What we know:
The chain has helices at 4-16, 25-33, 39-51, 60-71, 76-85, 95-104, 111-127, 129-142, 145-158, 169-182, 188-199, 209-222, 238-250, 259-272, 296-310, 316-320, 323-351, 362-385, 410-416, 430-434. With 480 residues, the protein is mainly alpha-helical. The model is unreliable at 231-235 and 405-480 (pLDDT under 50).
Amino acid sequence: MPTVEELYRNYGILADATEQVGQHKDAYQVILDGVKGGTKEKRLAAQFIPKFFKHFPELADSAINAQLDLCEDEDVSIRRQAIKELPQFATGENLPRVADILTQLLQTDDSAEFNLVNNALLSIFKMDAKGTLGGLFSQILQGEDIVRERAIKFLSTKLKTLPDEVLTKEVEELILTESKKVLEDVTGEEFVLFMKILSGLKSLQTKNVHSTRFVTYFCEQVLPNLGTLTTPVEGLDIQLEVLKLLAEMSSFCGDMEKLETNLRKLFDKLLEYMPLPPEEAENGENAGNEEPKLQFSYVECLLYSFHQLGRKLPDFLTAKLNAEKLKDFKIRLQYFARGLQVYIRQLRLALQGKTGEALKTEENKIKVVALKITNNINVLIKDLFHIPPSYKSTVTLSWKPVQKVEIGQKRASEDTTSGSPPKKSSAGPKRDARQIYNPPSGKYSSNLGNFNYEQRGAFRGSRGGRGWGTRGNRSRGRLY
Length: 480
């Protein structure tokens, strides 16, 4: 094992050799052996090995392995120094390997090390984006769960910070291709993260053949699996995130091979959130103890998606459903529409006269969003009450910025602010129309000062058994 003095002496030999550095292989080998020494020798080796790495291609494997030994040293200062220097090894065919190594190092629990790894990955990303993506996706597909999780989060947070000259069209194509492989087997949270990654790509932000193909792929992934979305529970609301993404992309979806099948899946999911009116007891009161809960955030997403995709099969409600099912649907729509009117009136009353700073309070911001949601649903329900159902109205999803209204969209815009219930209904018991409406309980039914318009939920289980794949846990050692 070389001493500190020997390391400095051999460093001097290499530093003074200028163009003939590669001829001093023995001197470089002494520096490589420094990783076997004490703390001082290791610190010097961590700096000297990468400095002369490019001059000794025949010792590349030995040099990289020596640096990796330092990345796993017990001394945190040595680890940090070794990690900081890793980008210097990312030359030529070594770059994907270094990217793979850095991706594995994301599993560190030391915050300073973690930041160094992130910075190193960003550094080599700017050298060779494709090679870096190769290392990242290799670990996402085959690595330990903690590495996979952090690699996905790295992509979701860092890709959007990279300049256009790094994220070229070819690089975005690679991200899309590799992401499709991952999406064959993901958890709900992973699915949402990847959809956000992909929807942020420049090539998918304009309507073209490429973006339409991706959106169609997304819809074909989501729609058959809507039945696996669970009801909200404590935790991240994966369900609402997926439904929001579906709503955003539905208007750009191309032709699907199984359009009717997928539309039926979407219709069935929508019915889960469109309750039937409660049965009445003999005294005219509700027979049940609880009124149905109207979950507007979910209904907005589902109804909007159905409205957009229904345009591609406009006779779905009239020709593809039997008469009883269509009648049942219109009863649900009518019941839901009456509930909307109550909430819309309550919300408008709560916001009446409030302007400027008053509307900026957290409570009033929630009410404003709630009013957008209920108005959107109201417009969409009106369209579906037409005979035959219409798919012409245009609304802006409640979480999206309002677009400029074209002249041809004026009527739809006016409908958005309308508080009147649907005027025509070909289905539903007539007695319902004569009753005084009792608003059902739910997120908007009481205590307007404490709205919580987004419930929380998640897919059931982890990666397996939900229709999104059956990825199991892996336990692997160092793969460097």
